[in-house]
Inverse folding.
């Protein structure tokens, strides 16, 4: 699927910004490190994470990391 926000095998597709944040979370970055690398505020990182958690159906960062390890990198 090219672009868009359709459904995927593992739930709703993440936006480009959400994917960038998710990759850095998977690498072990803190919200502060993510904000510095992506040149966005920590608040924006938190907003992306909230949407990622909802889409990935997780409640904690550790659960997100485990879930992301099951999803092939794009």
């Amino acid at each position: 699927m090219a672009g868009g926000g359709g459904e995927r095998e593992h739930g709703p597709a993440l936006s480009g910004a959400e994917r960038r944040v998710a990759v850095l979370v998977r690498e072990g970055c803190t919200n502060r490190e993510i904000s510095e690398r992506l040149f966005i505020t920590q608040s924006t990182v938190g907003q992306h994470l909230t949407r990622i958690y909802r889409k990935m159906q997780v409640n904690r960062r550790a659960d997100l990391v485990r879930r992301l390890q099951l999803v092939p990198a794009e």
User: Anything to note?
Assistant: The helical segments are 16-26, 31-38, 42-56, 61-70.
